[in-house]
Amino acid sequence: MSDTRAEIPIIDAHQHFWNLSTNYYPWLQDPDPIPFRYGDYSALKRNYLPADLRRDIGSYRVVKTIHIEAEWDRSRPVAETEWLHDLSRREGLPTVCVAHAALDAPDADETLYRQSRVSIVRGIRHKPTAAGSPGEAKRGAPGSMDDPQWRKGYAILGCLGLSFDLQTPWWHLDAASELARDFPNTQIIINHTGLPADRSPEGLAAWRSALEKVATCPNIAIKISGLGQKGRPWSLESNAPVIRDAIAIFGADRAMFASNYPVDSLVASYGTIVAGFLAAIADRPMAEQYQLTHDSAERIYRL
């Protein structure tokens, strides 16, 4: 990579911190592990703080980061945000955050209001109910994007000027399209490239079709991240076509780089992920490369 490419500014649009010595993260601290798409995640059960991220970033020019809620104790969602606010003031990272609120909870309005009052909050993530495979996917499940109670909470986001980070498999993006059209003033950011876990020709074709349909909604963007595969190291050969397809579908102005660190340390070093992404977009005009690594995230997350 040339010196110019090494200096390209990066906003990491999806990263996590946790301090297991002082805070409670059930998935990292409870004795029974959760089902996890990368398999064994025991290597994540350690503190991960700004100094660790800076070490992993190395010489890359990461100028800002966006912290996504890390499944902190669900009974105290605002406590994570307050901890991150203090961390940001002390350490300079994260720059902003996406907080958690259970949109279908009876007190969703109160939680959303409290989250919105913290200055570093830009949006909310609450993973809707999802089926385990395309064949199991059905519309209208409780806790899904179709659920009237879930939508009641979602409707508050626009009133508070908050965006929504959507983590759901691609086979639920039809519901996301309807959500986007029903609430056109709320920005949706799809997490982890729509989770294209099935890399067979048929699986990728279905993933592309789902992205093409949801990308017709102008208020939906996508984060290109989370491309690891269970039992396999991150590779440019397997991931470059996915990266390029996602960008071709959404355009450089609605797509952005994200590391998903430290979760994706299970499949690659930070440098491998950044270098792979930059290699995959190297044939694009420099202005588009800057959009993908920096400008789109800056605009969409209102940095």
From TrEMBL:
<dbReference type="InterPro" id="IPR006680">
    <property type="entry name" value="Amidohydro-rel"/>
</dbReference>
<comment type="similarity">
    <text>Belongs to the metallo-dependent hydrolases superfamily.</text>
</comment>
<keyword id="KW-0378">Hydrolase</keyword>
<protein>
    <submittedName>
        <fullName>Putative TIM-barrel fold metal-dependent hydrolase</fullName>
    </submittedName>
</protein>
<dbReference type="InterPro" id="IPR052350">
    <property type="entry name" value="Metallo-dep_Lactonases"/>
</dbReference>
<dbReference type="Pfam" id="PF04909">
    <property type="entry name" value="Amidohydro_2"/>
</dbReference>
<feature type="region of interest" description="Disordered">
    <location>
        <begin position="127"/>
        <end position="146"/>
    </location>
</feature>
<dbReference type="InterPro" id="IPR032466">
    <property type="entry name" value="Metal_Hydrolase"/>
</dbReference>
<dbReference type="GO" id="GO:0016787">
    <property type="term" value="F:hydrolase activity"/>
</dbReference>
<feature type="domain" description="Amidohydrolase-related">
    <location>
        <begin position="11"/>
        <end position="303"/>
    </location>
</feature>
